[in-house]
Every structure is written in structure tokens, then in C-alpha cells.
From TrEMBL:
The protein's name in its UniProt record: Deoxycytidylate deaminase
Keywords for the protein's UniProt record, in alphabetical order: Hydrolase, Metal-binding, Zinc
Record organism: Paenibacillus chungangensis
Listed transmembrane segments: none
Cofactor: Zn(2+)
Length: 175
């Protein structure tokens, strides 16, 4: 039976996603603040956010470095060329997490990330030893490919649909 305090206590998904959102407030990217945490069991092992390499001017200081690429996608049964824009100045939160945590800690762990990983980050996470990815905001540019990759690798990949970020996390993102 839950006591009054237990009824107010956050579940583990909310707790760790709240931390990921608070970590994202360290980002200086003007386009999207992303935070991630590495968890094994209920133990927090690491945090990271997106940004320029240490000691290098970030997008807020030097401007975004946008690269454009085109990809063929099937839309309404027809192949169409779709333009994608990506900032290449920024190291993604998931990449920073992998750079600053140990492989042994990642084995069997869960990654909580504010945003669905892009294709490159999904590939890196798929090879990192983690067994689950929990995200909040979708990233439609790579969604189908990433879902297929995670299913193929047997990595649990789930979205927290009814989650509300802490108000202090701040940044609104438009898709």
C-alpha cells in the first residue's frame, strides 16, 4: 500500500528522463538541446549533452555549421528526394556519452535520451553494449531506419509518450 509520500514519488522512467532534460540545459546549441544519461539497474553511471568539442567555439559563438544531404524516401508509394540539414559542428549527446563512459559500464545498461537518436547515434549505441534506449521526443528524419535497426539488434527501444519535461528544462523544439 502506497503512503502519501510514495504517491508523490516519481517512477524510474520519469526520474531518469527528468535528469536527461536537466543535463540538456548545458547545451548551447540554438537548434536543439539534447541530454542523455546512462543507467545500469537504478544506478546513474554518466551524463552528456550535445555541443562543440571542448575548447572549440560552439554554435552560439561561431554559428551553426549546416551540411545538407539528400536521401531517397518512399512517400505515399512514390520515391522522392528529401533534403536533410544537419549541424556538423556539434557532437551529439549520445556520442559524448559513449566517449566519456566505459564499455564495461555500458554492458547491459539503459540509455535515457531526450530525443530519439539519429541514424549515426543509433548505429553507435547499437554497438555499445546497451540493451535499452528510452527517449521522449521523436526525430522523424531517421525514425523508420532507427526502429528497424533496434529491432534487428534486439535492443528495447521505447518512447515515453505521456512524459512532461521539468519546466526548468526550457527549450521548445519544432520538428
Amino acid at each position: 500500500m502506497a503512503t502519501g509520500n510514495d504517491a508523490l514519488r516519481k517512477d524510474w522512467d520519469t526520474y531518469f528522463m527528468d535528469i536527461a532534460y536537466m543535463v540538456s540545459t548545458r547545451s548551447r546549441c540554438p537548434r536543439r538541446h539534447v541530454g542523455t544519461v546512462l543507467v545500469q539497474g537504478k544506478k546513474l553511471l554518466g551524463t552528456a549533452y550535445n555541443g562543440a568539442p571542448m575548447g572549440v567555439q560552439d554554435c552560439e559563438e561561431a554559428g551553426c555549421m549546416i551540411a545538407e544531404q539528400y536521401e531517397v524516401q518512399l512517400i505515399d508509394g512514390k520515391e522522392q528526394m528529401v533534403k536533410k540539414q544537419r549541424c556538423i559542428r556539434t557532437i551529439h549527446a549520445e556520442q559524448n556519452l559513449l566517449l566519456f563512459t566505459d564499455r564495461a559500464d555500458r554492458e547491459g545498461s539503459t540509455v535515457y535520451v531526450t530525443d530519439q537518436p539519429c541514424w549515426t547515434c543509433a548505429n553507435m549505441l547499437a554497438n555499445s553494449g546497451i540493451v535499452e534506449i528510452v527517449y521522449h521526443r521523436s526525430y522523424p528524419k531517421d525514425s523508420d531506419k532507427v526502429h528497424n535497426l533496434m529491432a534487428g539488434k534486439g535492443i528495447v527501444f521505447r518512447q515515453l509518450n505521456h512524459y512532461e519535461p521539468p519546466p526548468q528544462a526550457g527549450m521548445e523544439v519544432t520538428q
